[in-house]
Design goal:
This protein is α+β, with helices and mostly antiparallel strands. Helices cover 30% and strands 35% of the residues. The chain starts with a strand and ends with a helix. The model has no long low-confidence stretch (mean pLDDT 93).
Amino acid sequence: MQPIETERLILRNFRESDAEALYAYLRSPVSNCFLSLKLSDMDAALAEAGKRGQDNEQIAVCLKDTGTLIGDLFAHVEEDTVSVGWNFNPAFSGKGYATEAARALFAHVFDTVGARRVYAYVEDHNLPSQRLCERLGMRQEGVFVEYISFTNDPAGNPVYENTMQYALLRREWMIRSSH
């Protein structure tokens, strides 16, 4: 993908040099939905960064002034609809970076890719991600009760989580971005 610049960030393809920063937040994922991406060591981080670098749907979010990877976005195109998501290093939370990056991604998928609709899945206990969806103008469309399991209880049984779906239409984005 062509890099996207915002006031403070650069969104670009991953590079192997991102491995250490990727490992910093994927060695112990904060959100259960990213547990399957957990990295065990730097070799795994190098392999993951290399793999992501070949995939235009996996987007590195870097600080413009230092080039430091602070998180990532994804945008999986499904015809005229795009599934989006984000995962940021908690060390960089509370500074508006996720909102800035996601807004730039939305502008790209609506204006350049021509998406009609974007949606995101968020677990019902992930309040920061829910608030991000709302700041982006997304609406909650529903809750999938006991939708998916990322972990097991001590007896080995799946622990199912409730998952919310948020979405935004292109026409809604255009109205919001014209103000």
